[in-house]
Amino acid sequence: MRAQGLAGAYVGVSDEVGALLWNPAGIQQLTRSEIQLMQANLVEGQKHQHVGMALPVWRRGERETWGLSASVLTMDEFEVLDEGENLGQARPQETAVGLSYARSLWGVSGGLTGKLVQVKTFDQSGQACAIDLGVRSEGNRLWSWGAALSNLGTSLSLGQEKVGLPLVLRAGGARMWRGFRGGSLLTSFQVDAPADDRLGGRAGVEYAGSFVGQWRWAARAGARTFEAEPVSVGAGVGLQSLEINYAFSPQSDWGDVHRFDLTWRFGKPLVSETRRRVLLKQGSTLVGEGRILEARPIMDELETLSPKNREVQALVHKSQQRFAESLDPDALMVLAQKTYGEGDFPKAADLFRKILLVDPAQDAARLWLGKTERKIEEERTVRLKADVAKFRQQELKNLTRQAASRESAGDWPVALGLWQKVLLVGGPSSQVQGRVQMCREKLCDQADRAWANRDAGKALALFEAAERGGSYPRAAQGAEKVRKEAAKQAESRRAEQAKKAAEFAQKIYTRGMAAYVAGDLRKAKELFLEAQALDPQDKNLRQALEHVEEELRLHPGRH
User: Fold this and answer.
1) How many CA atoms does the CB half-sphere of 500 hold within 13 Å?
2) Final residue of a domain: which of 491, 511, 539?
3) What integer pLDDT is reported at residue 58 of this predicted model?
4) What is the mean pLDDT of the chain?
5) What would the pLDDT profile of 161-220 be if each residue is shown by its tens digit?
């Protein structure tokens, strides 16, 4: 078993189906489907059996990998004694079944395993659900790294007792030396952080080579900082699609541990993934050599085959930069038309202008430029309309909020004006029209109360406010009634004032006549003028004033 031969320093290596036990992201490194059977003879009669299968598939322009696994840990049957009494035979067993999924995310592989764990003891049983999460660097590079969080889930209930699954975080890396003395040398290291124990470290080394045709072999060794199984050694041998691994861990007090596994790789590599790998190599070579027109068909096929792949995106971006830097009109035309097709009209227009600077006789580029500039103008118009619509929606929201606030405060004139603005900005709305109707009714109710309290001015102002922005029969009738009554009251006041003025004028007239009789014509004239100002329609006053003025002209010396 490869992972145990490396003393478990495997989270950063995980590149075959055995990764289901260590780091679910590792199954994304498989090139073909794999199935693995494992048998481990542990201490004190314990046995661990495991079967795992991983299946790569191609979906939506990217590869993803599914996995199934099942593990059973058993002990030899033994008698259960309680104070010397034989209670029966017990054979404890722990079973775990998992479903895994892995795919590439943001330039790394991510993996998830959902599993169901079931435990049986002598007279109790329980089960728990958990997940394993993992990440690993992409590709088969010299350096690799990985991390995994295992057994994140519910507690295991055994009778009245609840036992948590062993939660542990693992992180580590690996370094490969190819061509080392005719083979390859792998070193790996790892740190384990259990939730209920101290930190631990692991390290391993593997040397692999081949012999006699297609036969291959590997030797491994590793060490841990844990007291149990401090060291491990292992070996493996393979031929074509089959591989057998063995790992041995000596135990000073508990006995030795032996592990075996058999791995079978079947099926063919994913056609799309293989094609992408070939195209990436060809495209990188052509772009690196500056043969960008020859690289264009490859870029188009890559974008169709796997548009979201990071390596594809990086190569396409690099090729586009090379196109943009080129002064070849044909190359620029290819990139400009592609950019136009992608909807990046400003960039396309810049490229068409560049073509015309290099070769002003390029009529096709001139036609394309005109077409592109029209598209830019259309986009600008669409954006402006969208901005106006957005502003209108925001304004509508603010007006509605303010209107509702004024309505809640009983400020009906202001609320009415705001609701009318809402109608103006947002268009006809039965709900808003209903609010306008209610505000007008409230204003008319207030106007009626003011009229009942003989406050004609306030009543008229409220009726007129209810009519503002459109005719409203109840308000119009109320306002007309108030105006007529107010006119009658004004006329009555004017008549009363005229009567009082006439009475006062008569008193002044009497004083003027007294002054006239006494021979004080000037004093009489002043009083007659004052009385006439109060009652200009009085004929007696007018005649008396004319008489006094006549005498003053005939006898200027008289007082």
Assistant:
1) 6
2) 491
3) 92
4) 87
5) 788 888 999 999 999 998 777 789 999 999 999 988 889 999 999 999 988 778 899 999
Q: Is 0.70 surpassed by the pTM of this model? A: no
Domain that holds residue 314: 272-382
Residue with the larger pLDDT of the pair 80 and 50 = 50
Tokens of 137: 């660097």
Identify any residues that bridge with 542 across adjacent strands, giving them in sequence order.
none
Question: Is position 516 within any domain?
Answer: yes
- 352 torsion bin: left (phi>0), alpha (psi -120 to 50), beta (else): alpha
395, part of any domain: no
DSSP string, 15-26: -SGGGGGT-GGG
Give me the residues paired with residue 93 across strands.
Answer: 74, 120
Q: 474, 491, 508: which is the final residue of a domain?
A: 491
How far apart, in whole angstroms, are the C-alpha atoms of residue 343 and residue 44? 69
Helical H segments across 429-517, by residue range: 430-452, 456-467, 473-517
Per-residue model confidence (pLDDT) at position 55: 95
Residue type, 79: E
Query: Could you tell me which of 476, 477, 475, 479 has the C-alpha nearest to residue 487?
Result: 479
Looking at residues 4-13, what average pLDDT do you find?
A: 92
Q: What is the pLDDT of residues 24-37, one digit of tens each?
A: 999 999 989 999 99
3-state secondary structure 393-444: HHHHHHHHHHHHHHHHCCCHHHHHHHHHHHHHHHCCCHHHHHHHHHHHHHHH
Output the CA torsion 411→417→419→420 (10° steps). 160
- Tell me the Ramachandran region of residue 452: left when phi exceeds 0, alpha when psi lies from -120 to 50, beta otherwise: alpha
